[in-house]
Every structure is written in structure tokens, then in C-alpha cells.
Amino acid sequence: MELLEAIKSRRSVRAYKPDPVSEEVLTELLEVARWAPSATNTQPWEFFVLTGNALEDLNHATTANIREGMKPNPDIAALETPPKGPYATRQQKFFKQILDLVKPEEGTNKMQNWFEMSASNYNAPALIIIVADKSAPGWFIFDIGIVTQTIALAAQEYGLGTCILGDTAAYPDCVRRVTGIPESKRIIIGIAVGYPDWDDPLNSLQTGREPVEKLVTWCRTAETR
What we know:
- The protein has one domain (3-215): NADH Oxidase, CATH 3.40.109.10.
- The chain has a four-stranded antiparallel beta sheet with strand order 1-2-4-3, with helices on both faces.
- The chain is an alpha+beta fold.
- The chain starts with a helix and ends in a 10-residue tail after the last helix.
- Helix 2 packs across helix 6, helix 3 (52-67) runs antiparallel to helix 5 and helix 3 (52-67) packs antiparallel against helix 8.
- The protein has helices at residues 3-9, 23-33, 52-67, 85-99, 110-119, 140-155, 167-170, 172-179, 212-215; strands at 46-51, 126-133, 161-165, 185-194.
- It is globular, with a radius of gyration of 18 Å.
């Protein structure tokens, strides 16, 4: 797949086939991703890959936290900062789009059902958890974002879909209990990985983007005072 096509066609996949993703393919994917750039080549990322029973245990534990109304407690408090202004408007538009596609289970509303689906990684057969050691320098959060995007783009070359999930970081104690990730490492983000089920309505969602004219300010001549 050509790079520009991959960037424009990438989407969050929220329904997956049950087919497992082999460790060989996941290793190749991370082999590619490790070439992502980082500030002064610090490479502050580490990967924990969950499949099989380990992933099922995490899904059950995280879903239970949501059903019990447990408040998220991410390692980085800023990850829970709610959006405001135009960002909140865009988020609300997304909520409406996704909830129109969710079929709630008996006894739950659409929002609750969607939260639980997200917490269980949309039943993807694999989950990549990206962590950074607490000794990582200040720019590490940007570097984690870069390597996350690299994984999401490269996955398409293997016929895989991904969904970048903040829920993985929402309950770090739960994640550590299942994975053994030490306290010395911050849990930053999760990436659901699997083969997309394109027949599922959840994968019909296409989000828009702001026009470039609203995002770019051209500074062609320096101001003088």
C-alpha cells in the first residue's frame, strides 16, 4: 500500500474477525514500528503484547471496572483532561456517529454498551500496550504518539486493522495485575490489532477532518515592531 493512501484510508477498526494474528506477524509489525523517530533518538517505547487468555482476562477485568463505576486513574493525569471548545464539539459529533451504530445489549444503554466494547478492545485478537519508563525524558509522550501512528499505518500492509485505545491506560492497576508491567513504567496507550470484519456496521463509520484552510496560518513575512 502506498504511504499517502495508507494515511488517508486508515480508520479505527471496531469489529474484528476471530482469526488470531500470529506472533510472527506481530513481531514483524513491531520490527517496522521501532524505526519511528524520537527526540534525540531516545526511543522511549516498550511493547507488551497480549493475546489469548491474558487478553481475555484483561478484557473481563476492565469491563468489570466500568460496570462498577470505577473512576479512571491513568498514570498520566493529563490523559483524563476533558476536551473543551471546538474539541468538545468534534467529540460530541463522534459520539453521535458511533452510538447510531451501536446495538445495546438488554439492560444497558448505548453509551454504556459502547464503553464496555471499547474496554474489551472490541474483541480484537491482539492488544499492543505501549509503556514508557518513568526515567524517559520530557518529550517521550510525543514519541509514543509517533510510534503509535507508525504501528497503525504499517498494520495495513499486513491486512490488519487497529484501534488506538485510551481505555487501556485508564485502569493501570488492572493492567499491571494481568501483565506484570512494573510500577516503574507508565502505561500510555493500547492498540487493538486484528483482521477487520468489514461486514460489521461498526466499521462503516467514517469521521471527517477539518479543512486545511482552518488549520494553517501562513507566516510569509516576519513582523517587525
